[in-house]
Amino acid sequence: MRIDFTKMHGLGNDFIVLDGRVHALPPVDAAFASALADRHTGIGCDQLIVLEPSMDADFRMRIFNADGSEVEACGNATRAVGLLHGEPARIETLGGLVISTPTDGGISVQMGKPRFDWNAIPLAYAMDTHAMPVAWEELVNPIAVNVGNPHVIFFVADPYAIDMARIGPMIETDPLFPERINVNVAGITARDAITLRVWERGAGLTRACGTGACATAIGAMKRGLVDRRVTVTLPGGPLVIEWREDNEIVMTGPATEAFRGSFDAADFGAHIRIAI
Ligand SMILES: N[C@@H](CCC[C@H](N)C(=O)O)C(=O)O
């Protein structure tokens, strides 16, 4: 069974997109997703994105991290599939409904409303998520925000001075976070500017994380460090994040189609049922 794919990225956070709205796909499970995502033996990506028909929206977007885990939200992939769709789209995700709109600056996405309760992050036990009384080495007193998926944010003087490859996985897998966590280290450079690096749950250090930019901007706004519209600059480039008066988060930035191709599903261990 041959499967068409589109390779896309948002600021270098890269995706394999499979469009199940137009082609039959084999069942996508963790093993198939991680085999495709492998950069040595697969096609390679940070996230596998699967589009399916939806009863409640224009289509459904499923998101698999490179380790195969299926998750609730992906900001950069939402812009990428928004570009692919070519017109405004209401997109169903495990994290809720998101709305993408093509704009002059790329694609704008209404990402939903942030959540701050400890059990909505989720954390393992009750805690003030605005200034968490926890530390991992020099990373102290983070804020936790759920923007469809879970994030913890540390404000530091220089995000590039943090050894994320070492400390990121320690925090990601700490028992405080029963569903693991995306780890953000951010520096405030002006009332409207943040520098950010993200260790992504299930994918590691990526060039950009859209939900990380949203969660970090909201965390900084909640602490009064920045205004309600801010540019978040990641290693792959900038995103503009706005926290509207109606509590909706809006992310705007570019998306890119890199190339199209096809592969044989059996090469990646897809379990294809043959009807007889
Ligand atoms: N790269 C994404 C986030 C992908 C999911 C994340 N790793 C998670 O496990 O929640 C983005 O652009 O938001």
TrEMBL record:
Keywords: Amino-acid biosynthesis, Cytoplasm, Isomerase, Lysine biosynthesis. One of its GO terms (cellular component) is cytosol. Pathway: Amino-acid biosynthesis; L-lysine biosynthesis via DAP pathway; DL-2,6-diaminopimelate from LL-2,6-diaminopimelate: step 1/1. The lineage of its organism: Bacteria, Pseudomonadati, Pseudomonadota, Alphaproteobacteria, Sphingomonadales. Substrate binds at residues 13, 47, 65, 75-76, 149, 182, 200-201, 210-211. It catalyses: (2S,6S)-2,6-diaminopimelate = meso-2,6-diaminopimelate. It comes from Novosphingobium resinovorum. The active site is at residues 74, 209. This is Diaminopimelate epimerase. It is found in: Cytoplasm. Homodimer. GO terms for biological process: lysine biosynthetic process via diaminopimelate. Catalyzes the stereoinversion of LL-2,6-diaminopimelate (L,L-DAP) to meso-diaminopimelate (meso-DAP), a precursor of L-lysine and an essential component of the bacterial peptidoglycan. The keyword Cell cycle does not apply. Its EC number is 5.1.1.7.
